Amino acid sequence: MKGMEKQLGALIRTKRLEKNFSQQGLCKGICTISYLSKIEQGQGNPSHEIIVALLRQLGIEQFYQEDFLLQAQKNIQQVYDTFFREGPIEHEELALPWQQEYTQQILQSVFFLDGLLFLCLHCTGQEHTPNQYTEELEKHLELLNERQKAIFFSLTYRGEAAVAQFPCGCIFFWEGTNQCMKGKYAQAIGTLDKAFDYAARECNPV
């Protein structure tokens, strides 16, 4: 899908390394090593045929179907809209609105980074939180867009970086809440003031 080059590159690189393929081994008969490297970095403009061939080599076929991707795109946008409207208070319900099987399909599609981010949201605050999702996203940090980075930085307690990436009421509120929990009350008041100011503007755009 157009505009999904970075997520696609992250998916191909991650699955290639999981299967212990070298770049040469994966792209043999499909494209050059230098071109595969560009694809993995989210660059270039690979044809549909090259992408399908690479994904098939990695054992990923069924989740490159156009109807699946269009529906997944709508579902993912709904999650982001809900998050930025309601915040992370009910993150367990927010992060995985679909069955586990569907989430695994997302992780084998061009929405790979979104899937990892939602799993991070789902695990945040649980007693035995697996950290493989945050570790995996950290590897692809340069490929995340501003919205994804803001959520990820908030999840990993980098509030200043989060609000710098995507200043909005929800992100400021999350950071202000974290500051309160750490006992930084004076700082939290200023941050929460900004949260309410942004929220008021978002509810009443000029």
Give the number of DSSP strands: 0
Provide the residue-averaged pLDDT. Answer: 83
* Structural class assignment: mainly alpha
Cα shape? elongated
H/E element order:
HHHHHHHHHHHHH
The end-to-end distance, rounded to whole angstroms, is: 33 Å
Rounded to an integer in angstroms, the radius of gyration calculated over CA atoms is: 19 Å
Helix content: 55-70%
Largest sheet report: none
Q: How many helix segments?
A: 13
Strand content: under 5%
Q: Segments where pLDDT lies below 50 for 5+ residues?
A: none
Overview of this protein structure:
The protein is mainly α. The chain has helices spanning 5-18, 23-27, 33-40, 48-57, 66-86, 91-95, 100-106, 112-123, 132-139, 146-155, 159-165, 169-181, 185-203. α8 runs parallel beside α10 (146-155) and α12 (169-181) runs antiparallel to α13.
Write the layout of secondary structure elements.
Blueprint: H1 5-18, H2 23-27, H3 33-40, H4 48-57, H5 66-86, H6 91-95, H7 100-106, H8 112-123, H9 132-139, H10 146-155, H11 159-165, H12 169-181, H13 185-203
Helix pairs in contact: 8-9, 8-10, 10-11, 11-12, 12-13
